[in-house]
Amino acid sequence: MTVTTVKPDSAAQAADAVRWALSEGTPLDVAGSGSKRGLGRPIQTAYTLDLSGLSGVVAYEAEELVLTARAGTPMAEILPMLAERRQQLAFEPQDLGPLFGRPEGQGTLGGVVASGLAGPRRISAGSARDHTLGIEGVNGRGDLYKGGGKVVKNVTGYDVPKLMAGSFGTLTVLTELTVKVLPAPEDVRTLLLAGREDAGAVAALTAALQSPYDVSGAAHLPAAVAARSHVRAVAAVGGAVTLVRVEGFGPSVTARVAALKEELGADAVLDRDESLAVWREIKDVAFFCPLPNPPPLTQGRELDSLPRPAGEGWGGGDDSRHISRHVWKISVQPSEGPRVAESIRWALDAELYFDWGGGLIWAAVAPTPDAASAIRGALGTAGHATLVRAPEDVRTTTEVFHPLPDPVMALSRRVKESFDPCGILNPGRMYAGV
């Protein structure tokens, strides 16, 4: 199929494009940079609405902790700008481009919000939805509208900005967003516990999260995954590694780390650079990426300046078996995480690791026809599973997002119809017919 790309450079042009598609009865593949195009069901359409031309920061009010930018603004522009003012998007937006074989740093603000994804700090700071204050966009009726604002306040009616987070462009073509930013931590340290099996590791993570020490990251890397880290202190353990992150002002971090180290029986403490590096690996699912990770960390070098040498496999050798694996994101009750992980390993050839204190499992699974049923069968009613990376033919025939109960699916259809009655915006991206 020949695909024609329509690239507006203003919100008004985006509205014109939607109205044209509506008049022609033709669906649109709504995309930013396309860094997450591999996530979701494939869209069969002859027209792509490319929002990368809607780029640029509209307003950055650092004192008010608010940023407004056009939807196509690259995160590679936004994140350094925030860092200069020692601020951040606290939900730790993921860069999943490399997971799909694309260069890093190509995601956009609109894509971050539309996908609704968040990194390890979700357990303490919430998701993208919790930090989205306002939006401007075009619905499927061709109406250019605004929702929300620049402050957090009680309002009546629907909270439209939060509804857009995680909608994957099926409800509105986002043209501009306002997000909350927060101060970046002055210091960060990570406690390392070596050699814990899954159940013991999740128990330690639970204890850390329930402690009064304000933990902002809690993850567990089984031995095979930990060995792929480019942080020497992690890979050199030679076994499973359990990680607990503490952030904040320097003296506070020092005191909390000392207390946690004694309570958890930690084996080591990673410094700031090592902590930044390993949590970026965890956040971006770097252990399952086909592109190389950064080389081993060198003390004193800035994380984002580390080169990625061509031809260096992230697994230290032939990584073709990992490139071909399907990647699943599995949300589960933390107490059920070890059981679910063991069930998946028993049923499938799978490697996995835990984030969110055991409540999130990232799994790289060898392709088999029954993988989806095996994973969702292992879950039962304990959570849900999303197929994040797989070839297009697999994503066409597999429920990419977890099947919804009939009442929830009926509600989703009604919401879709209210914003996009003719079904022209990313039709079927999440569920068939929605």
Automatic annotation (TrEMBL):
InterPro entries in alphabetical order: FAD-bd_PCMH, FAD-bd_PCMH-like_sf, FAD-bd_PCMH_sub2, FAD-linked_Oxase-like_C, Oxid_FAD_bind_N
GO molecular function, one term: FAD binding
Species this chain originates from: Azospirillum argentinense
PROSITE patterns given in the database record: FAD_PCMH
Protein name from the UniProt record: FAD-binding PCMH-type domain-containing protein
Keyword annotations of the record: FAD, Flavoprotein
One protein family per Pfam: FAD_binding_4
Keyword match Flavoprotein: yes
SUPFAM superfamilies named in the record: FAD-binding/transporter-associated domain-like, FAD-linked oxidases, C-terminal domain
Domain FAD-binding PCMH-type positions: 1-184
